[in-house]
Structures are given as structure tokens and as C-alpha cells.
Amino acid sequence: MSHTAHIRSHRKPRSRTASTIAMRAGVAGGILSTVAVAGASAAANAAEPVTQTLELPTLTADLSAQVAQSAEATQLAAANYQLQAERDAAAAAAAKEAAKDLAAAKKAEARKKAAEEARQAAAERASRDSRRTTLAAAADTGSSSFSTSASTSASTATGSAAAVIDFVRAQVGDAYVSGGTGPNSWDCSGLVQAAFRQVGIDLPRVSQDQSTAGTQVSLDNLQPGDILYWGGAGSAYHVAVYVGGGMFVGAQNPSTGVVEKPLSYDPPSGAVRVL
Length: 275
Fold this sequence. Notes:
The chain has a six-stranded antiparallel beta sheet with strand order 3-8-4-5-6-7. It has a two-stranded parallel ribbon with strand order 1-2. It folds into two domains: 74-143; 144-273, endopeptidase domain like (from Nostoc punctiforme) (endopeptidase fold (from Nostoc punctiforme)), CATH 3.90.1720.10. It has helices at 18-47, 61-141, 145-156, 159-170, 188-197, 207-210; strands at residues 175-176, 185-186, 215-217, 227-230, 238-244, 247-253, 257-262, 270-273. By secondary structure, the protein is of the alpha+beta class.
């Protein structure tokens, strides 16, 4: 048996009254109500979308003026481009018209030149025909002083003239080749140049220059060794050597080659003397 006596507590047991219980139940209910309201509010807030409002800058007077100036500058640039395009088109049209005018002028000049050349050729043909008729008539009658003089000259050719004549006559029968300078084919000026080179005379290469290489002489006063030319002096298109007796030797064309023919065969336009 314990020596300690059991002493009852002097504290009075708590008495839970109905009011205390009701108060505690009300507090708990209020807390639960608050939690429920808060939860419902959170759910509502989560469901609603968030809208953000942006505030645009206010269009001030300066910004408005800048916009107007930019628009005006754009319109001015467009107008300048249009004007430049119109100017370029006008310039192109003018250039095209000028080109047409130039082409027409060139054609007109070409026609004029062709007509002049045809006229000159016709005049030269008429002149040759006239001389051919005169020479033929003189040969038939035997009374031409030209023919008499030519025959005398042929019989008295000596020295350099005789050497030139001997050379060209030795080439009779050779072929005619444009640009030919021998020894078996010639063109007209190549034959004449080679003949005079035999006597130490260096003539120009082409007929145009050979027709002015010496002293101009009349066709009525020819001597053996004179250079005959056809066409104008300085613009001759053919040359040959007068060999006397009313005859000449020349490289005529591809059909005949080098031949000896009477002057009436193809009367020359003029002659020059270099011996």
C-alpha cells in the first residue's frame, strides 16, 4: 500500500455549455465559409481572360506635319520620275527620227553619186566611140597625119623606148591576173611598171598614179614608149604602152590576157610621157 495519500483535485471540472459549443461551431463555420468564398473567387478569376490595354501615342502637330511632308516628297519624286521618263522617250524618238533622216540623206547621196558616175561613164564611152570612128576612118583612107606620125615613130624607136617596147611585146600571150606582176601573169599596171623598170624608171604601182607620172601629151602626138591611160588623169582605171604604128600593148582582161591591139580597138583617154 502506498504511503502517498491520494488527494483529490480541488479544480472544478470544465463545464461545456451550449453557448460555448455554439460559438465554436460558428467560428468554424465562418472560417469554412471564408475558405469556400476564396476558392470560388480564385476559380472565377482563373476562368476570366486577362485583357491588356495599350495606349497609342497621341498624334501631335509636329508628327502630323512630318507625315504630310513625307507624302508631299513622295508625290514630288513620282512626278520627277514621270517627267524624266517622258523626256527619255522624247529623246529616243528624236534620235530614231534623226537616224532615219541620216539614212535617207546617205541614200540620196549614194543615188546622186551613182548617177554622176553613170553620166561620166556614158561621156567616156561616147568619147571613145568618137575617137574609134575617127581612127577607123583614118586607117581606111591612109591620110591621117596621126597614123603617118605613128608609123614613122615605130620605125625610129631606139634606146630606152625600144627596150620598153621589146619587153611588153615579149609578154604578149601571158595571162591577165588581178594584182599580177609577172613573170607569166600580169595586170595592166603591173606590166607597165615592169617594162619601165627595165630602163631604170621606177613607176608607181597602180594605174591611177601612173596616169600622172609624166608629162601629159596629146593623142595626136604620141611617141613609142608613151603610157596610155583610160579614164581621167589621176583616176585612170587602165593603162598600156604605145608601141608605135597606131598600136599598143597591154594586159587587157582575163579573157584576152596580154595583147597587141590598134588604138581603134579601145581608144585611150590620154597619155603621159616619161622617157
